[in-house]
Amino acid sequence: MTEINTAVETAAPHRYTAAMAADIEARWQDFWDAEGTYEAPNPTGDLAGDPEVVARPKKFIMDMFPYPSGAGLHVGHPLGYIATDVFARHARMTGHNVLHTLGFDAFGLPAEQYAVQTGTHPRVSTEANMENMKVQLRRLGLGHDKRRSFATIDPEYYKWTQWIFLQIYNAWYDDEAGKARPIAELIERFENGTREIPGSTRAWNELTATERADILGEYRLAYTSEAPVNWCPGLGTVLANEEVTSDGRSERGNFPVFKAKLRQWNMRITAYADRLLDDLDALDWPEAIKLQQRNWIGRSEGARVDFQVGDTGAITVFTTRQDTLFGATYMVLAPEHDLVDRIVPAAWPEGTHDVWTGGHATPSEAVDAYRKQAASKSDVERQADAKEKTGVFTGAYATNPVSGDRVPVFIADYVLMGYGTGAIMAVPAHDSRDFAFARAFELPMRCVVEPDDERGTDPTTWDDAFASYDAKLVNSANGEISLDGLGVVDAKAKITAWLADRGIGEGTVNFRLRDWLFSRQRYWGEPFPIVYDEDGVAHALPESMLPLELPEVEDYSPRTFDPDDADTRPEPPLSRNEDWVDVTLDLEDGNGPRRYRRETNTMPNWAGSCWYELRYLDPHNSEKLVDPTVEEYWMGPREGMPTGGVDLYVGGAEHAVLHLLYARFWSKMLFDLGHISSAEPFHKLYNQGMIQAFVYRDARGIAVPAVEVEERDGAFWYEGEKVSRVLGKMGKSLKNAVTPDEICSEYGADTLRLYEMAMGPLDVSRPWDTRAVVGQYRLLQRLWRNIVDEATGEATVVAAEPDEDTLRALHKAIDGVAQDMAAMRFNTAIAKVTELNNHLTKSGGALSRSVAERLVLLVAPLAPHIAEELWRKLGHTDSVVHQDFPVADPAYLVDETVTCVVQIKGKVKARLEVPPSITDADLEALALADPHVVGALGGAEIRKVIVRAPKLVNIVAG
Hints:
By secondary structure, this protein is of the alpha+beta class. Helices cover 33% and strands 18% of the residues. Helix 22 packs across helix 23 and helix 27 (849-859) runs antiparallel to helix 28 (864-873). It is globular.
């Protein structure tokens, strides 16, 4: 410590410093915890409380679930948490019962990877990470109801995740009712004959258990199926598309990835596609997020059409351009399509083009080789518009149902099983991708949509396809139907009706959305509450056996294989605990104890975050998912919220599709089955921006520590080497992370809170600048000095009323801050507080008590620790948290005078200070009598006076 600083602190021992901030903040955080300051009462149950508080309007405010990372928080993480805290504090001060808490989404791959590397149980490392994050979050002064916090790894929590899974498993979607119903109702219909059993003429009780299970599997909202997945033998696990690089290798380890069919659990989210689309309209979400969900769901209207393949069966395609059916000259199946093996002949048909065979002697050799090639590509690669078109002829022909032409059937990797039917009819004259494929494989083309660009109707002379929705049909007639001369819309309707009449097609709606793949070959996830009997039939565990807890295993890693061995299959870690896997259980179904084998996959990390808002409401309930009265109180439908939900949900835009879509699906299912009153989980969604930081890289492209980089002569240097600088994410791996602990130690948590909120609009990304933090620190120091004597530590306020200028400044600030708080414009709210504080500083002298108290209340949501301390110094014994937010007096919001401009011939000749309420007549008289105006007129005749009180007078003279 320097002599100067020692002298300053001796002269001002009660100055607001970082040390004082640390003391104040720690004391008030302890006080809030001891007093339960942020505890929000429920209307009933173990968290019931003061009926007067329950009777207030409610606000349920949520942050997106944090994952407890081993690296802890950097200053970018708390941005949303501070924002929701400010909003929640303001809501409390405006008379609301506010529920605001925070838990942890604690299952996940990072903890499992750490366990594989170190042998540390994932629970141990995860719980240590959570404790560290709790300390960091507490230091920020976040007003959370800690009674309601939990982690998804708590057995008391995932008991209900498993319970929800069983509700989904034991439900089916009734299209007639437009909602999910218990599977028992479907079984009853099969039993009493009121619903036809698909694919069977026998009665329900005549079917075997396996047959019944297979039939119900086609209806259940949770079901198993053979699904194409990204299988990585080198890692021993299935990967999500996002974990596969563009060259078909694993992002982690760079191992080859193959397409394989594995039996996986799925969620039938597609049953809810229309409702997921339609209900977006009632949500208060950013339009960009709604658009992403609409595009992901991808609703399209078209037709299903059957192309017969000899006596083998039919290939069914979905198309949105059934009007171009006469132009279909070949077909393409996804390499994985089930029909491929059935249609491939022993030898190439006579006249097969050499380019169709891929150089193989037989169709089966060509198909096998191409399938292996396609299996090494990710779906993203396959959909990319590659310049080189690949594929092979299957050796089979289908019949075009309208032209009667034989059309060759190919397989090609640009057709995926995940969309439509996994088969397309190719109309090369009018689709760019089909056109390129046809040129590459010497396939015929037929123009059926008349070009309007003078290219003619012979596609062999074209450079590319003619794709248009605003054109007439040509060359589209047979002995029974003609589309010639019709526009696209009329042609689609006509051909669809014709197909339906003949039983070879029908109008239908298709969705891009696929059912949710719900299995992971991991250890660190929720176990499935499912067992299999000796016939392989799945059985749900009874509720009395929940939670099914994760067992101990010796090795947390899945078994790995030769990286190039595509024929291997995963062995999840749970499968190695045979005592846990193979069990004798009484499932309470009347069959007594029997031998079963447990499901050894685990649920994906999305599962726990699909319903956590409900657990916040009633976190200790061991008998029900949530008490209906409590759920309806906090989340039920009400005016302006027709589908109910959380009042405010804040998080990053990166969760636009997966998390938000899955959570909406689960809510709708629980709503259908009567478990909750809210059909949507989150009514209002707000996406905060990102706090960015500069990333410095050396010549090798490797990030270097940002704090050790020097700036010289407009360039940046690290250990004598010139480095590049680019603005990007903040993170440990980029060596540019700044922790909130560092800022809190140097300035205090209130300064950090103010700086993050003042950096700019909350929904816009912004660069972090540690040097700028001091500006908010100085604001708090000035605020402190305006109320506290730095020598004595006592409040300096007086009882006298403030002057009119101060009252106007105060009430304008109150009005502006109140509006900004409600609209989450925290940066401009801070600017208005700063402006008021500066006005008070310049005014000099002691503050009026009434001004000081309202100033503290204005600051309280933003900087709660210093507000509490100042409130106490002003003589109050209760917390500032539940005080009423100041209300502006309208009389002081109107300016005492406004400036009126007087123009003659469009040029300003005078400026008058006039009352805002002045009349046109009085303003005209005042302007004409002004000496500057009289002099400028010089006795000229006034032809017209235009008055726009109180701001403009325009005189037309001469």
